[in-house]
């Protein structure tokens, strides 16, 4: 009761359904409007039984960390999310939920699996989608993911670029892997734009070979870690931000198709196998595990969007994917500091640890390589 | 006129394509395939039967690739299980057996093969053997001790009571410089063929099938079989330039094969009867130093002449060695520390091995020297009484004179299950 009232106090814009507050929230199905009381250690949705159809979640962050709120379907398929809810802020999320079981999750500090609560949606189930509608829905679902990631990408890249231009080396070094996380999650989108990707995420030997200036993330990375300063980086920082914004805009204008999505999920794992598992990507900072995890998350998001189609086409494949994603997460997560969310530096891993990661990536890559055919078969 | 064997091969390749019922397969692709076949058969076109066209039977009481006359090329690999699930081990062995059945008979892996599947799906078979004949491919499997027990001695995969007594860890030998990352392994697979591409294709596809269940620990390519395993073969030379394996057990020597190669029922365990033990040793040769050794010295170290391979006690290659013979100066004609003497059954309680080794050159070492040597493989019934007995005689600078020029850098011991029938799978007895 107390938290409910407190929430009302903070809310100014969103209409709050009083009925949701009046009785035990789990008892009656809520219609339409819900509140989410988020804190550094809690995530309370005002009702856990909802009616099918559009619901508005009003998320209020009473904690001290920036948080985000997700609604997940099975397999962590994102039905909707709000990111970057700062302390004391309130933001709304509208999601159209068909009958089923979901999870609401707050992520204080914007890391980890989040504090989760099961949401049961009953009532008129949405009409069964045709195959082609399902593929469209998958593409739409991923487009929402791309939007949320790319919005934050711009925010975080701006913070990084600001730190670089202000000569704040330590802060920039801290922000580098965080900003790149959002980049790496949606890399297949960036790769669609052939000329922008290399000047943004290219590596030094390739730039040399092409006889072009070495620019982008890794140019600044080199300066920060090798020279330990930001001298002469203003130009590269401005250019990075401008190109990231261009890619984001292009990506939102030209969303991936379901098939591209399937190929992208594989492409992200190939990135891991060839770039991250070898420690090649972040050769100066050794922050490869941030990218590694982000690639896996991006791949998982793509598979999650395709899940309804895959469930129909090849349920055994979905099972296999779930199991291998879990196994890889298990292997990977032991290298993360649970408190800070920071990852071990890649050059600190032993040979055996690298091999174990590589084995887990290979184990997942085989079933992932079957996804495109399953999607194509449903088209 | 086509000889019967090559017709069979062609049929087996075609049968695969036909059986898959690939309506989508373009005529052009089929045509390209036929051209490949034609080219593959060109060497045989003179009317001489191409021995590579006839596949070596996969099924039998024993695994192929042991007493099979040694092929020219080797691709050897060991795997470590990445799963701890018994079901994964069993399904892997089933899947591998199915793929080995197909590949050894000159077919693609899987139902749809290299080019018959969905255009959006990675092909089931990797395709580099399309159009190539079976090339004498054999695929032979063995299980390492680490498959049965972990480092703390705990049983793995529920294989209680299945660990063969003789599958011990090999003892250390004087002079060994073993590198763990290229030694041992849960499972060893030996692919031999007369065409290296066919051998590589076999291992590559098995490795691919294994992802998620097992991963490659190390692999080794070899060429120029250094041992003849049939009296019909001439004795090949190792990279020291000497004939190697003159006294090897030959497949025609039935009694020796039975006594020294196959595990008997009474040897136990039951699942291994009809199988064999495989010892692998990667032996680096100090090629450049050896090449500076005078001919007389080289011959004395080995105990045989370099040209014919005859023993220094006289006679041609296959002459019985007279270890009591003296040279002109009254010294033993066969040096007391020569390789041929110390390795001989007479000085090893009668122990013999079926050797099946290959030469290797893994590039060079940056100091102008070749990374080269012998990948020693030997099959036997009882490793303790055979390989270990002989290696104890040889190892150490006080013993075999050859040790100045060689160093063992990798080692492995594997229990190779018996052969499989029409429906069985490798190591099925482990799950009985």
In a few lines, what is going on in this structure?
The complex is a heterodimer of chains A (379) and B (432). Chain A contains 14 helices and 9 strands. Chain A has 379 residues and is an alpha+beta fold.
Distance between the termini of chain A: 50 Å
Radius of gyration of chain A: 21 Å
Q: What percent strand of chain A?
A: 15-25%
> What are the secondary-structure elements of chain B, in order, as H or E?
HHEHEHEHEHEHHHEEEHE
**How far do the termini of chain B sit from each other?**
49 Å
> What is the string of helix and strand elements of chain A?
HHEEEEEEEEEHHHHHHHHHHHH
Please give the count of helices of chain A.
Answer: 14
The percentage helix of chain A is: 40-55%
Polypeptide structure, described:
The complex is a heterodimer of chains A (379) and B (432). Chain A is an alpha+beta fold and 379 residues long. Chain A folds into 2 domains: 2-127, Immunoglobulin-like (Sandwich); 133-378, Up-down Bundle (A middle domain of Talin 1), CATH 1.20.1420.20. Chain A has helices spanning 2-10, 18-22, 131-165, 169-185, 187-191, 196-201, 204-210, 217-227, 234-253, 258-276, 288-313, 315-333, 351-368, 371-378; strands spanning 33-38, 43-45, 49-51, 53-61, 67-73, 77-85, 90-97, 100-106, 115-122. Chain A has a 5-stranded mixed beta sheet with strand order 3-9-8-5-6. Mean pLDDT of chain A is 84; it is low at 1-28. With 432 residues, chain B is an alpha+beta fold. Chain B contains 10 helices and 9 strands. An 8-stranded antiparallel beta barrel of chain B has the order 1-3-2-9-5-8-7-4. In chain B, strand 7 and strand 8 (370-380) form a beta hairpin. In chain B, helix 3 (86-104) runs antiparallel to helix 5 (196-210). Chain A binds chain B through residues 259, 324, 355-356, 358-360, 362-367, 369-370, 372-373, 375-377, and chain B through 82, 117-122, 208, 211-213, 215.
Protein traits:
heterodimer, A: 379 residues, alpha+beta, Immunoglobulin-like, A middle domain of Talin 1, 2 domains, five-stranded mixed β-sheet, four-stranded mixed β-sheet, 14 helices, 54% helix, B: 432 residues, eight-stranded antiparallel barrel, 10 helices, disordered N terminus
């Amino acid at each position: 009761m107390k938290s409910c009232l407190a929430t009302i106090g903070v809310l100014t814009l969103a209409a709050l359904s009083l009925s949701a507050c009046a009785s035990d929230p789990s008892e009656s199905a809520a219609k339409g409007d819900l509140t989410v009381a988020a804190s550094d250690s809690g995530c309370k949705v005002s009702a856990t039984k909802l009616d099918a159809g559009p619901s508005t979640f009003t998320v209020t962050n009473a904690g001290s960390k920036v948080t985000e709120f997700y609604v997940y379907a099975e397999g962590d398929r994102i039905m909707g999310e709000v990111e970057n809810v700062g302390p004391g802020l309130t933001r709304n999320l509208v999601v159209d939920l068909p009958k089923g079981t979901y999870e609401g999750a707050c992520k204080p500090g914007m890391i980890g699996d989040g504090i989760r609560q099961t949401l049961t949606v009953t009532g008129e189930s949405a009409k069964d989608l045709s195959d082609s509608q399902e593929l469209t829905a998958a593409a739409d679902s991923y487009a929402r993911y791309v939007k949320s990631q790319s919005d934050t990408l711009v925010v975080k890249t701006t913070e990084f670029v600001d730190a670089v231009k202000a000569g704040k080396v330590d802060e920039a070094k801290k922000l580098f892997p965080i900003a790149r996380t959002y980049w790496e999650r949606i890399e297949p989108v960036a790769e669609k734009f052939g000329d922008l990707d290399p000047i943004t995420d290219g590596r030094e030997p390739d730039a040399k070979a092409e006889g072009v200036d070495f620019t982008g993330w890794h140019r600044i990375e080199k300066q920060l870690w090798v020279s330990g300063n930001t001298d002469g980086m203003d130009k590269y920082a401005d250019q990075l931000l401008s190109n990231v914004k261009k890619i984001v805009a292009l990506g939102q204008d030209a969303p991936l198709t379901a098939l591209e999505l399937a190929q992208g999920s594989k492409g992200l794992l190939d990135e891991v196998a060839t770039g991250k598992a070898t420690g090649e990507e972040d050769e100066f900072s050794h922050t490869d595990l941030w990218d590694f995890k982000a690639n896996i998350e991006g791949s998982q998001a793509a598979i999650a969007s395709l899940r309804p189609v895959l469930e129909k086409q090849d349920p055994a494949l979905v099972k296999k994917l779930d199991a291998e994603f879990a196994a890889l997460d298990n292997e990977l997560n032991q290298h993360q500091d649970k408190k800070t969310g920071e990852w071990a530096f890649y050059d600190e891993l032993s040979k055996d640890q690298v091999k174990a990661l590589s084995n887990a990536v290979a184990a997942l890559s085989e079933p992932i390589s079957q996804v495109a055919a399953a999607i194509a078969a449903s088209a | 006129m086509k000889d019967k064997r090559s017709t069979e091969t062609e049929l087996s390749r075609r049968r695969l394509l036909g059986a898959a019922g690939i309506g989508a397969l373009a005529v052009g692709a089929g045509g390209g395939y036929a051209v490949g076949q034609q080219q593959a058969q060109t060497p045989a076109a003179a009317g001489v039967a191409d021995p590579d066209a006839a596949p070596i039977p996969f099924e039998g009481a024993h695994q192929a690739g042991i007493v099979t006359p040694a092929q020219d090329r080797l691709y050897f690999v060991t795997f470590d299980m990445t799963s701890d699930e018994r079901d994964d081990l069993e399904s892997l062995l089933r899947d591998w057996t199915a793929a080995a059945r197909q590949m050894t008979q000159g077919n693609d892996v899987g139902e749809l093969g290299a080019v018959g599947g969905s255009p959006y799906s990675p092909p089931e078979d990797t395709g580099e053997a399309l159009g190539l004949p079976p090339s004498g491919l054999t695929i032979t499997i063995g299980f390492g001790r680490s498959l049965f027990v972990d480092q703390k001695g705990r049983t793995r995969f529920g294989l209680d009571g299945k660990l063969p007594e003789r599958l011990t860890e090999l003892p250390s030998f004087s002079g060994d410089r073993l590198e763990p990352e290229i030694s041992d392994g849960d499972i060893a697979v030996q692919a031999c063929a007369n065409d290296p591409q066919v051998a590589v294709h076999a291992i590559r596809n098995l490795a691919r099938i294994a992802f998620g269940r097992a991963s490659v620990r190390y692999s080794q390519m070899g060429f120029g079989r250094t041992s003849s395993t049939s009296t019909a073969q001439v004795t090949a030379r190792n990279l020291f330039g000497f004939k190697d394996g003159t006294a090897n057990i030959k497949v025609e020597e039935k009694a020796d094969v039975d006594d020294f190669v196959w595990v008997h029922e009474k040897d136990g365990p039951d699942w291994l009867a009809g199988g064999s033990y495989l010892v692998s040793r990667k032996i680096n040769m100090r090629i450049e130093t050896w090449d500076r050794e005078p001919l007389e010295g080289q011959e004395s170290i080995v105990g045989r002449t370099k040209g014919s391979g005859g023993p220094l006690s006289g006679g041609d290659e296959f002459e019985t060695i007279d270890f009591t013979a003296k040279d002109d100066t009254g010294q033993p004609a066969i040096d007391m520390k020569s390789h041929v003497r110390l390795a001989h059954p007479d000085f090893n309680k009668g122990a013999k091995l079926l050797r099946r080794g290959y030469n290797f050159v893994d590039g060079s070492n940056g100091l102008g020297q070749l990374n080269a040597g012998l990948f020693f493989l030997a099959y036997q019934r009882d490793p303790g009484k055979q390989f270990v007995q002989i290696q104890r005689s040889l190892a150490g600078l006080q013993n075999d004179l050859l040790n100045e020029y060689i160093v063992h850098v990798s080692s492995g011991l594997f229990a190779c299950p018996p052969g499989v029938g029409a429906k069985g799978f490798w190591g099925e007895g482990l799950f009985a």
